[in-house]
Amino acid sequence: MFPLTSLLFIAATLLLCAYTLHKVRLIHLMLHDVRDQSHRDNAGLFRQLEALQGLYTDLGLSHSLPDTRGWAASPDFLLELTRHAQAEKPRTIVECSSGTSTLVLARCMQINGSGKVYSLEHDAAYARQTRQQLERHGLSAWAEVLDAPLAPQEFSGAIWPWYATDGLPRELEIDMLVIDGPPQATRSLARYPAGPALFGRLSAGAAVFLDDARRPDEQQILRRWADEHPEIEQRELRCEKGAAVLRYRPRA
Ligand SMILES: C[S@@+](CC[C@H](N)C(=O)[O-])C[C@H]1O[C@@H](n2cnc3c(N)ncnc32)[C@H](O)[C@@H]1O
Predict the structure, then answer these.
(1) Ligand 1 neighbour 102 (Cβ under 6 A)
(2) Of 158, 205, 137, 212, residue with least CA distance to 182
């Protein structure tokens, strides 16, 4: 018979081995996750670089674009906007929030030789910055950044902070609408009012681009718009932050 101390020693060794094996297994699983995540990150980064290069090629820019990270629209979304604007040559584009997207769209209008971008911007300093960028690129004639402070307005029976839209020409028909504002922090479903405020001004066949469509708020907004506007088709775009394109197809 083994003495008790030997039995205790064997039991402790077995426990230690089991614990070590458990830890090794966890590290093994974690390494797989890290490897998969790193593949996804690299693929995502490469996709943005390809889109950025595509943008510079399609737009033939002689000056660099501002940042396309963080708050700005991502290169893949900007490339979707560019392809649409160059293929369909919209006469009038309205944007909710200004920035790199304003430059990109203004350059499309310049290349097309017609069209105008109206960009609603709630932040006066940011509006000034976008105007400076337009000037730097020689694009001021193709886009107007409108000072449009957010003010409480009623839509669908509730109050929302929404852009002052009185700077938009009264008879304006919108061929392309780009919704990348207001920022999420301003209210839940912050971009919902774009529907009740602007969809009534869409021309037949107009396209609406919504950025950040992967966020739960934007998903809910899309569902509300689908309920309220069955005549507007929705399609998902495969973009970094999620995006959707809506098409206004009124029945004859
Ligand atoms: C999602 S951003 C708009 C991005 C714009 N469409 C673009 O492509 O650059 C929405 C709003 O955030 C504000 N904003 C943009 N960049 C910002 C920054 N770096 N810090 C704080 N606010 C910012 C601006 O007022 C802008 O209208």
Answers:
(1) no
(2) 212
Using DSSP's 3-state secondary structure scheme, residue 217 falls into helix
The reply to whether ligand 1 has any atom less than 6 angstroms from the CB of 180 is yes
104 CA: nearest ligand 1 atom: 8
From first to last of its 252 residues, what are the pLDDT tens digits of the chain?
668 888 888 888 899 988 889 888 888 888 888 887 777 888 999 999 999 999 999 999 999 999 899 899 999 999 999 999 999 999 999 999 999 999 999 999 999 999 999 999 999 999 999 999 999 999 999 999 999 999 999 999 999 999 999 999 999 999 999 999 999 999 999 999 999 999 999 999 999 999 999 999 999 999 999 999 999 999 999 999 999 999 999 877
Place of tokens 């077995």: 14
* Distance between Cα 181 and ligand 1 center (Å): 8
For ligand 1, is residue 126 a contact (CB within 6 Å)? yes
Domain extents in the chain: 1-59, 65-248
Does residue 120 contact residue 95 with C-beta atoms inside 8 Å?
yes
- Asked: is 65-248 a CATH 3.40.50.150 domain? The reply is yes
Cβ of 101 closer than 6 Å to ligand 1, yes or no, is yes
pTM for this one? Answer: 0.89
C-beta of 130 in contact with ligand 1 (< 6 A): no
Task: Return the SS3 of 141.
Answer: helix
